[in-house]
C-alpha cells in the first residue's frame, strides 16, 4: 500500500456487504468515490491544528463537489490541501496543491486564501510542483480550478442543461 491508497483491513468476506450498507459508507465515505474525490487529500486544517491558517477539509470537499459539476473528470487528478506551510497535505507533489495563507479580497479585506501549486509528481518521475498563483482568496477557487483542469490538464467542461445551476 502507498500513501495514495485507502484500505479497510480485517473485514471478513461474510461481513463485507453489511459494512457497505452502513450509513457512514453510504452517505459520507463512499468506497466508490468519484475520480476527483479519489485524488483528494486534506490535512486537518485550522479546525484541529493551531498553526493552520485556513479550514481545509470542508472547503476541499465543497470546492471539489462544485468543480465536478462543471468539468467532466475522466482520469485521476490529485488535489491536495494543507492549512499551513508545514504541508502535511503534501501540496508540492499533487497535480494541484493548495497551501493555506491569508489573502485579500477585491475590497482589500483579509480573507482565507491559498497559494496554488501545479505539476507535482510521485513515483519514478517524481518532482515538486511549482507555484502557479499566490494569495488566491478561497472564494475564488472554483473558477480557477476549472480553468486549470480545462487549460492545463486538458479535461472537458460539462455540457449544462438550460436552467441547470
Structure description:
- By secondary structure, the chain is of the alpha/beta class.
- The protein has one domain: Sulfite Reductase Hemoprotein, domain 1, CATH 3.30.413.
- It contains 5 helices and 7 strands.
- The strands form 2 sheets. It has a 5-stranded mixed β-sheet. The protein has a two-stranded antiparallel sheet with strand order 2-7.
- The longest helix is centred in the middle third of the chain and has 12 residues, at 57-68.
- It is globular.
- The termini are far apart.
- The model has no long low-confidence stretch (mean pLDDT 88).
Give the H and E element order: HHHEHEEEEEHE
The overall pLDDT, averaged over residues, is 88
- Regarding CATH, which class? Alpha Beta
Question: How many separate helices?
Answer: 5
Q: Helical amount among residues, as a percent range?
A: 10-25%
Largest sheet composition: 5 strands, mixed
Query: Which class best fits the helix and strand makeup?
Result: alpha/beta
Residue share in β-strands: 15-25%
Uncertain segments of ≥5 residues (pLDDT<50)?
Answer: none
Number of strands: 7
Domain Nitrite/sulphite reductase 4Fe-4S: 40-147
GO molecular function: 4 iron, 4 sulfur cluster binding; ferredoxin-nitrite reductase activity; heme binding; metal ion binding
Cofactor: siroheme; [4Fe-4S] cluster
Family: Belongs to the nitrite and sulfite reductase 4Fe-4S domain family.
Amino acid at each position: 500500500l502507498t500513501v495514495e491508497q485507502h484500505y479497510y483491513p480485517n473485514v471478513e468476506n461474510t461481513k463485507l456487504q453489511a459494512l457497505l450498507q452502513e450509513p457512514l459508507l453510504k452517505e459520507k465515505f463512499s468506497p466508490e468515490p468519484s475520480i476527483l474525490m479519489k485524488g483528494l487529500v486534506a490535512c486537518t486544517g485550522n479546525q484541529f491544528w493551531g498553526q493552520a491558517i485556513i479550514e481545509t477539509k470542508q472547503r476541499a470537499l465543497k470546492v471539489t463537489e462544485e468543480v465536478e459539476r462543471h468539468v467532466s473528470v475522466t482520469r485521476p487528478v490529485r488535489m491536495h490541501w494543507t492549512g499551513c506551510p508545514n504541508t502535511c497535505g503534501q501540496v508540492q507533489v499533487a497535480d494541484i496543491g493548495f497551501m493555506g495563507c491569508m489573502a485579500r479580497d477585491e475590497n482589500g479585506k483579509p480573507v482565507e486564501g491559498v497559494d496554488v501549486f501545479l505539476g507535482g509528481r510521485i513515483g519514478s518521475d517524481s518532482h515538486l510542483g511549482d507555484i502557479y498563483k499566490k494569495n488566491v482568496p478561497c472564494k475564488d477557487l472554483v473558477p480557477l480550478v476549472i480553468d486549470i483542469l480545462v487549460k492545463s490538464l486538458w479535461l472537458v467542461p460539462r455540457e449544462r442543461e438550460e436552467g441547470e445551476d
